[in-house]
Design brief:
Spore Coat Polysaccharide Biosynthesis Protein SpsA, Chain A; 17 helices; 13% strand; globular
């Protein structure tokens, strides 16, 4: 048995995610959106290649012969991108979450919550886990205070006092980093499944049962939960990120899950087979890149290690968590810098790992990441070309911005299938916001990839 006499059930009212409804819940609307998406893909293909965008670019390239070697590869990449979008869409249509575990047969589970300078929010995280539906004798909660300098420890103690004896607490005398905190939790875990939850997040009452479900399949080593924005109503940036998160999880990770290769199981909510984690734990903890110890991107790194051991990683859309996101531009940039540095490092590692996957899964994943990563050189080359071509024909920029709006509007159909909300307008705005204000993030991350700064606080 895990845990002692258990935790008194805590009241849990309806959450925003429990009342948000998407078109997928209405069969007629769902089929209408599916048809609209497929028609939209065909329309965008025609618009980009036959009418408005690349014809003017080709005409301009004839005047600037040196530009031809960039325009034509970008056309080829765009063609591959449209075909990949079609393929991802078909995978997305076929995705179904796995059935949740039931109260009688749910595996023993350990939930790890690492915290650093989180303040009162950590108490809400602990409370949401304690209130979740799960067999009392098969759940333990491990909370690690990673040397916080504020009142985080007091809030942890207060939450534990309300949660009886199911919670184990650890307090580091000084900050050692998130990997060290998670490692401590992994070593202490007694469950067959270990779940990691960020200390600025709250889970749905059904999340733990849902995220345990896929582990019925012995090939599954890691499960990604669905991440939503906790402070969604706090400004334009959180609203934009909410739409982006929906697309990242309900579209991209749904498609990846169909071939058992979700590239990143997020720190906000993920579950792992404990025996598998312990196989890779020493390598993950001591990971270095270009001779420098890795201090961020622990979630993507752990996913890669598990994929490298031959296990699948899948997405469970019914396991949901709300997490705090940046509310201003400076914090947003720091978050993206951290993510992009981790992305660069782990994409290089994945290029070696992917060939260890079964042949069909390896082929799909290799094509996916190759076409996806080509967006960087092609995208920046296209931006440079636009600056040149705009001198000859200023309307070229308007055509490209128009095509961007149309493509983004198509993406919003994917969003509406998950959530019928006017926030899709913020998703359209985000496309232009990122184009004009975040274009510098990836090049800077590439130049500073060896940096050890967390850039979180």
């Amino acid at each position: 048995m895990i845990g002692g006499r258990g935790v008194e059930e805590m009241p849990s009212g309806p959450k925003p995610w429990e009342t948000a409804r998407g078109a997928a819940e209405f069969p007629l609307a769902d089929w209408f959106l599916r048809a609209l998406i497929l028609i939209g893909i065909c329309g965008i293909f025609y618009y980009i290649f036959a009418v408005r965008v690349y014809q003017p670019l080709l005409h301009s390239a004839e005047k600037h012969h040196w530009a031809g070697f960039l325009v034509r590869p970008s056309i080829l990449w765009a063609l591959m991108g449209v075909l990949m979008l079609c393929f991802r869409t078909l995978l997305w249509f076929s995705y179904r979450p796995k059935p949740a575990a039931d109260m009688r047969t749910a595996p023993a589970m350990t939930v790890i919550i690492p915290a650093y300078n989180e303040g009162a929010m950590v108490a809400k995280t602990i409370a949401s886990v304690a209130a979740a539906k799960y067999p009392r004798d098969r759940l333990e909660i491990v909370v690690i205070d990673d040397g916080s300098k504020d009142d985080t420890w007091e809030h942890i103690e207060g939450a534990v006092a309300r949660c009886a004896d199911r919670v184990t607490t650890v307090r580091f005398p000084q900050n050692r980093g998130k990997r060290a905190a998670l490692e401590e939790g992994f070593h202490r875990a007694r469950g067959e499944v270990v779940v990691t939850i960020d200390s600025d997040s709250e889970i749905d009452s059904d999340t733990l049962l849902a995220i345990a479900g896929p582990f019925r399949d012995p090939k599954v080593g890691a499960v990604a939960g669905k991440v939503l924005v906790h402070n969604r109503r706090s400004g334009v940036i959180p609203r934009m990120l909410h739409v982006r998160f929906i697309l990242s999880f309900d579209f991209l990770r749904s498609a990846q899950s169909t071939y058992g290769t979700v590239y990143c199981c997020p720190g906000a909510l993920s579950a792992y087979r404990t025996s598998v984690v312990r196989e890779v734990l020493p390598f993950w903890r001591e990971q270095k890149f270009l001779g420098v110890e890795c201090t961020y991107g622990e979630d993507r790194a752990l996913t890669n290690f598990i994929l490298g051991e031959g296990y699948d990683s899948v997405y469970q859309g019914t396991a949901r968590v709300r997490t705090l996101v940046p509310e201003n531009y400076g914090k947003l940039c720091r978050m993206y810098l951290r993510w992009d540095r981790s992305y660069i490092r782990e994409e290089i590692r994945f290029a070696r790992i992917v060939w260890k996957r079964p042949p069909v899964k390896a082929l799909i994943a290799a094509l996916d990441v190759t076409i996806t990563n080509l967006r960087y050189p092609v995208g920046y080359a296209t931006m440079a070309l636009l600056a040149v071509f705009a001198v000859d024909d200023p309307t070229t920029i308007l055509r490209v911005l128009s095509a961007m709006g149309i493509m983004t509007s198509l993406n919003m159909l994917y969003y509406l299938r998950s959530e019928l909300s006017w926030d899709f307008l913020f998703g359209i705005f985000y496309a232009y916001f990122s184009f004009f204000t975040l274009f510098w993030i990836f090049p800077y991350a590439l130049l500073t990839v060896r940096s050890r700064s967390w850039l979180t606080r």
